[in-house]
Amino acid sequence: MLDTHKTNPTCPSCHKAANVRKHGKARSGLPRYFCNHCQKAFQNQYIYIAYQRQSADIPTR
Fold it and tell me: Mind listing the pLDDT tens digit for each residue in 23-48?
């Protein structure tokens, strides 16, 4: 049996989960969230784009 219950992410600033809603997607494709309590947007996970395989050909200074 699959567990289809999704938990709301917790805001890293005010640590509340009840006031968090979806707020689009980041450039990396990961979902963004917005906290109505502290009025801040955040992501649960971050990806540094320069480390992706296709950007390995970018010259360094």
Answer: 999 887 889 999 999 999 999 887 77
With 0-12 / 13-18 / 19 or more C-beta atoms within 10 angstroms meaning exposed / middle / buried, residue 9 is middle
Picking from 35, 7, 6, the residue whose alpha carbon sits closest to that of residue 21 is 35
6 within a domain of the structure (yes/no) = no
User: By residue range, what is the domain housing residue 43?
Assistant: 20-54
Q: Among 44, 40, 43, which Cα is nearest to 19's?
A: 40
In a domain, 49, yes or no: yes
Prediction pTM value: 0.62
